[in-house]
Structure of Cyclic nucleotide-binding domain-containing protein:
Amino acid sequence: MTSPNTVIWLRERTTLGILSSMVLDAIAQTLEEQVVPANSTLVSEATHPEALYIVQDGQLESETTNQNSSALARGFLPGAVINLQELLLDELTPCKIVTLTESHVWVIPTAKFRDLISQYPEINQAFSRQLAQELAQVTSALTYEQERSVALRPYLVTKAQRGIVGTSRYAVRLREQIRGAATDRKSVEIFGEPGLEKDNIATLIHFSSPKRREPIIKINCGILQTSGADLFGRAGGKPGLLEWLGEGSLILNNIQELPPELLQPVAQLLQTNTYTPVSRPGEPAATPRTSKARILLVSEKTESKIERCVGHIIKVPPLRVRKADIKAQVEYYTSLYVRSRGLKKPHITPEALRRLQSYDFPGNLKELKNLVERAIVQAGERRELTEEIFWAAEPKKKQFRVNLLNLYPGLRRFLRSSWWPDKINYGFTVVAFAFIVGVLFLGPQTRDRNFALNLFWAWWWPLILLIFPFFGRVWCAVCPFMIYGEITQKLSLWLFPRQLKRWPREQAEKWGGWFLFGLFTLIFLWEELWHLENTAYLSACLLLLITSGAMIFSALFERRFWCRYLCPIGGMNGLFAKLSMTELRAQQGICSATCTTYQCYKGGPEKGEGMETDGCPLYSHPAQLEDNRDCVLCMTCLKACPHRSVEFNLRPPGIELWTTHVPRNYEVALLFLLLGGIYIHRLPELLDRLGLQIDLTRFWLHLGISIIALLMPSAIILSSYWLIKIFNTRRKPRRLIELAYGYLPLVLGGNFAHYLRLGLGESGKIIPVTFATFGLSGEQLPILVAHPAVIAFLQGATLIFAVLLTIVLTQKIARQPLTTLIWQHLTAMILGISMWTIIVL
């Protein structure tokens, strides 16, 4: 290479380019070319430099034994000038330099370079100025970094606490969302319930991104100045956190606490990446600035004005829907705690894990962590974390409940056996029902001579009403109507193989309750106008009509569509079952954490201790039941469950009515109808007490009076609610649809008091009546009937108890002062007194 070309190369490719052409020409004249083989040492560490080297071609690398100066280890490419600073400042070489490939270098021996320095003072002056500029830049950068560190230190997040623990679909999806948000620089909003460590998720996004080496800070929105000066800085004054942050990440924690004045500036920052420093009063508005920081928002609920501006939205699922992850979370928190304190890791028992999985954790992960740490402390030297240690993890739905299946293993065995209810249904009920209907049609037509009619009115009605407070809808498990419905379903599928129709759930939920309400209204009117209580063949027709409905709808739809939505007796049973002191439920935690097949709901083959079943006949999942309305206690779920999740609990009667209950219009209408049914059953006594002389043999007049009797209690209740609203101007009363359920004990008690007359006065005559049914004389056979005074006493006691329970239940449902509901309580008393006059007196 000629000298002019060498000068051009030195000016364009090396740091010597700051020198004048004359000096560069002098340097070019002294250059000596040298070829250095690969893996050769060009410069030794801690020695006086032998020459100035300029790399023309090849690759070189430095090595150092100084562990505190890793920055000295670097590579050298063509154009690099080696030993320049050491020769100018007369220093020792800081590191060893070796060739990685065969390299061509220009060499100026030390003596010649010193001569050049003496001959051309410009060399020293130029590089001294450059070193001074570099030093000033380094000092300025160091000062800036120190100020930046001081400004950011109170808010700095050094690392993520942990990753996403668990293998559930929620955990997998959350990891995918974090990875997706980490790939770009868009803002992210992370929202969810308290205790979900949402700020840790924001930290995970930052440390998974390409800008992980930049700082990340977290600031609680509740402590931000309303002016925004600490976030945006002041015009011509102190910089804000956004300016100090540079390309780092900012976590705005608890965005719901953001001062309203900052909503618009934050929305602008998210939308345009610009912000305006705060100006002092009287000063012109500052020029907007661009922010390179990434904004991560953490909140308990979304803010609509901000939500529209963010790039990613991550909803963190609460722990109660991630029950499958609880085991992994417990293991993680246990390991974390014992490792930090040098303890032996205890084992958590399956019972304890089930208790945790059945708890809803309102405090989510933070509450679970505290429970685990407290349990380890309480366990002490024990190697197991047992169920009783987690005493705080008792779900509200489990409070005041006792699982009878655990107390009485024999009960579990019976309910899981083939006896309940299949052998009872198909071995006895199906035959007995056909026989009773036949006797009703062919036998004598009056109650004193037909044992089937006596069984229906004097035995079945009092007993079924007596069963409701104890076992809810248990009658539906052995109900003959649906047994014949199931037989029809099986026969029709055998004769005409096809796919049964799926349930029209939406229409059934909307209209099914009103359909059964209409049927029950017709039954009441039919019973009163045609005297069904004392007419055997008409009672048989009533039974056959309900059975035919079950058979028709069973032939059309799968499972027990009629039972769930359309059966009038089932509707009454479901309503009164709400007062039951027992319930069938499942442990939600086990169902959501362990179960993947849902055999109790869908049916399926034998699995573990779970038997082969066709699934719940009413399409109810026991873990999702909020009341007893849709459970017939057939125990299919108990037989199908392989996880021992199903429970048969003893509980406070009717507790769901003031805890988890969901009111429905058609249920309230049916409740009022059943209340009116008490008065229509006692229509002659009612007219007598009112002093009305009406000829009930006239059909249309009888029909009109019967309808008025059905509607009269409803009118009284509506009037009392109208008075409640008028006289309570300060406190708004609860809706009638909620308060109406308070009358449920009165409705049940009134109907039971009515049928007590038949139950205690005629059911004991069953033996002679049976003989009379078949044309035999039964006059000398024993009978067992109660004295009229005893019957009256029990009827009166039932009504008094029902009124008191109505008042108590109404207070529990309303949760309002007694004075607010005084009109409803007076109405209950008035209705109770009226029932007393027509039933007892």
